[in-house]
Amino acid sequence: MLYYSGHTKRIGNVDEGSTVTDFLPAERARGITIQSAAITFHWTPEAWLPQYEPVPVYNINLIDTPGHADFTFEVLRSLRVLDGAVCILDGVAGVEAQTEKVFNQARAYSIPTVFYVNKLDRNGARFGEAVRQIASKLRIMPVVCQIPWYDDRGETLIGVIDVVNMRGLRWVANGDGKDLTIVPLPEIGCSKPKLMEEAYRARTSLVEILSEEDETMVENFLEYKEDHLAVPAEKIWSSIRRCLLVPKPRISPVFAGASFRNIGVQPVLDAVANLLPSPEDTPDPSFTTEELSGGLREFVSGKLALPKSLPKQTGKLATRKRASYSDKIADLEACALAFKVVNDSRRGILVYVRVYYGSLNRNAILYNTNLQTVEKMPRLLRMYAADAVDEVSIKAGDIAVIPGLKHARTGDTLITFTGINPKTGPPIPFKSLQLRPIDIPPPVFFAAIEPHAAAYQSAINASLDLLLREDPSLQLGENEDTGQQLLSGMGELHLEIASNRLIQDFKAKATIGKIEIAYRECPSYTTSVQDIVYESTLASIHSKAGCSASISALVPEEMQDPRLTDGNLIVVNGTSDEGSETNFEVLSALRNGALAALARGPTLGYPVSGAKVSLTFDSAVHQFGSLTSISAISGAARKATRAVLEASAKISSPCLLEPVMRVVVKVEESTLGSVARDLETSRHGVIESLGEFENTSDVSLSGMNDISVIDLQRVYSPPDPFESQTADPFSSKPQAIHGSRAIIAKVPLKEMVGYLKHLRSLTAGRGSFTMEIDGFARMNKQRENLVLKELRGDL
């Protein structure tokens, strides 16, 4: 695209690491897209054709997004600010799992999509099968605008048949794609009559599908005496565009090509310019304030009705105030959404913004309505992947980059306002005006960050703050039990890239490793009462106190006791003066002492949970006059609890408790059984329920709501090379799309470490899951022995 538009002088190659938009070292080393890259270029439709007639020049803002499932948040935040999309399919693989997920995300944002079936030059490429999969898996009606044109042997792709204009486009073999010829369809029919007949069938299907969606096409069809071939090409393009501009498009045009052979790229660019919406054609961006909600364009035009509660007064004064309130709308200069933050090694912090209203001007004062902060914008850039050009102003619909902002984050709304007060910000309601935020999916993969030394912790934290500001789908937490700092993300590759950036780019002196599982110890033997006397001398001050204790495992009836603390029940007997301040201090000291002893188990050093400790403090026996202080009582309780813990462990080893997660796994019905069996058998989980997946809050799933199944009998798809002539691709009944199913289970945390990769293999990449801590559960002896061997290094 960049080469044909004149932006670059040569065509880059992903395998060689020479593409413009994949400029990170990690991207070039791996041959994949890791972070989205923005670039702006100009395109003149049909200027590449020999029979070119001057048409307007279009300004295209292109964002190249990743295709790997681990970087789904990069796709989400890009879709949030885009008006249209080109979905590239592998002609051999067809619609893959990640294609389904990303397309559903685009559908949730009502983004019209153009399909480009690529790699049709490879052995085994099947354009017709890809078209059928668009209908069956994505549940949208494909409108075939091109069909592939192979040589006489059906092996080499030489061009495409333009079904709309009823012509052949033949590219020069092994060229750069700029040399091609337009071949009239009758001329093609002389040597390949079947291909011409197929073009007629494709054109007939195209007009019929558009007639079902567009009333104007019906009128055109009748005007040309119901002749599918007589309808002019420009009327067909206009009809496709009208169908794509509706709030929830039900069709998608499909194009064919082979980018590696430089075949078919220019028609896709024409489709982007002619079919996909301009900023004025998109739905009105939604916004909210403390008092208002609605469409931004409707609001700034004064058409949005203001609530009667603004202001609360009535009469002439209220009318004047409401008029003054409306007049302030004219002072709004620009409104933009920050959708990405990047830490550039040369330019510092770069904030990518999409301008939704007005013009963003250099040196303007920006107000962040999310953080209620004011910052000046000294520079304004337009990005060309890794390169940047200074701009004086960026208008609505464009993508800009603001360097040097200290506070802006992904999803923040930024506005400029005439006469804004740098200290107080804009007036109400603009102070709270916020555009629709960007949804952040929950993390599913975890790793631990260990500093090389405690002195490096503050520098590591600063680097992590930058990393998390760049990528909010990364989350940082701390395991209170193990003390480990945990970094969580969308997958193994996602965390691997984040770790490389942290260590190599930010030079953090840390090690990224596996998370430690926080087990618990539980007493398995009930001890007799032990009487302990505690003595201590500190700074020449002698203290002495006594205490009696016994310990046992909690029974099920005691699990719900409101007095439970950290999973343990402390019962104190024998104190006097109930309700007095002294008695309260003694009770607190006894409980705190017992809890301190339970913080470390007698066998493996894990905290104790599921224990019932009975303490007895008899003032006649355990109090020694002035020598007995509150701290001495606490020490006695700690020593007594520790003694009964060790006594119980000598008689019978404590059992181990492990953290258990409540896991919700979303799968297709075809893989429901295998995933459920895996959770129960291999992962020692307990299935709680199997049901329909109803989480419509997930933007990656909500796009499928209320979408009907496509009848494959109505879908046109050309025959693929070497396809069996006797086989009818539509002989079976229309494929029904089974709804997503949700498996809710309780699974040990240890078994969920690295589960994402295993789930993807079980579900062909279509499964996903979320989890949260549910509590601790006792392990069976076999599993406990395996864990003990692993902890001791015997495995």
From TrEMBL:
PROSITE patterns: G_TR_1, G_TR_2. GO terms for cellular component: mitochondrial matrix. Residues 1-280 form the Tr-type G domain. InterPro entries: EF-G-like_DII (IPR053905), EFG_II (IPR041095), EFG_III (IPR009022), EFG_III/V (IPR035647), EFG_V (IPR035649), EFG_V-like (IPR000640), G_TR_CS (IPR031157), P-loop_NTPase (IPR027417). GO terms for molecular function: GTP binding; GTPase activity. The keyword DNA repair does not apply. The keyword Phosphoprotein does not apply. It holds the Pfam family EFG_III. Keywords: GTP-binding, Mitochondrion, Nucleotide-binding, Protein biosynthesis. Coiled coil: none annotated. SMART domains: EFG_C. One of its GO terms (biological process) is ribosome disassembly. NCBIfam families: small_GTP (TIGR00231). PANTHER family: RIBOSOME-RELEASING FACTOR 2, MITOCHONDRIAL, TRANSLATION ELONGATION FACTOR G-RELATED. This is Tr-type G domain-containing protein. It comes from Gomphillus americanus. The lineage of its organism: Eukaryota, Fungi, Dikarya, Ascomycota, Pezizomycotina.
